[in-house]
Structures are given as structure tokens and as C-alpha cells.
Amino acid sequence: MSGDIGTDDDVRKVLSSAKTIAIVGATNRESMPVHGVMNYMISQGYKCIPINPREAENGGEILGQKAVGKIADISEKVDMVDVFLRSDRIPAAVDDAIAAGAGAVWTQLDIEVDEETIAKAKAAGMTVITNRCPAIEIPRLGITKL
Fold this sequence. Notes:
This protein is of the alpha/beta class and 146 residues long. Helix content is 37%, strand content 17%. A five-stranded parallel β-sheet has the order 2-1-5-6-7, with helices on both faces. A two-stranded antiparallel ribbon has the order 3-4. β3 (61-62) and β4 form a beta hairpin. It is globular.
């Protein structure tokens, strides 16, 4: 199982260059961490596309952004995939991120990612960051959008 994967330099590079971020597990429930993180990322100038099959099925929005059912439904280039799912659902999300050609995959605090999934993402050329939160890392590292 993984601990922290990705250096501060990796975090700076990803967050400084990313424009479009797929937020897997996005929700309208304000009590969920994903809601606060997505809201923060939007306030920092990132284009966030919420991945939520139920919301997408009903034509819904999350934080004013049209929800889509899966990463493959996004028609533009995805720079980063931020995954807010249980550990057992991470491998499938990483497979979807690889298929979409995303440059980075990010998992949140206290979510374990198996070594095989990490190796697969790296072999596909992705930057992998685990056990970190962009809403914490941006102010901690003084990152500003390009």
C-alpha cells in the first residue's frame, strides 16, 4: 500500500500547469470534502469537471459545472484527475484517467492506493500524487495559476 507518493516539485508542476481537472466522486453534498475542494479549485481558476453518474443522468450540475458520468465523456483534454473514491475503486478510476490521456492522477488524504495501480499510472507516463489535498498544497507551496 502507498504512503505519500509525489514530491513537492511534482505537486508544484502539476498544479501550476493544470487547467482542466476531472473531479471523480464530485457531489452537491456540502458536508463532503470533495465539495469544498472542488469549490476551492474553481476559486483558484481551475476548470473543474465533476464526474458523478447520477447527477449526469439527470442533466445536473455541481457547483455550477455540468456533471458528466465518466472521464471518457469529457470532450476536452484533461490535465489532472482528482479522485475522491474508496481505495477499492481507485484502480478503475486510474484506468479511466490513463484512457483519457490525463497527465496526472491525484488521490486524497488517507486513501490507500495499491502499488500495481501506481506502477500502471507511472508506466503510462502520468504523474502520481497520493495522500495529499490540492486545497492544502496550493497555499502551503504558494502555487499560483499560470
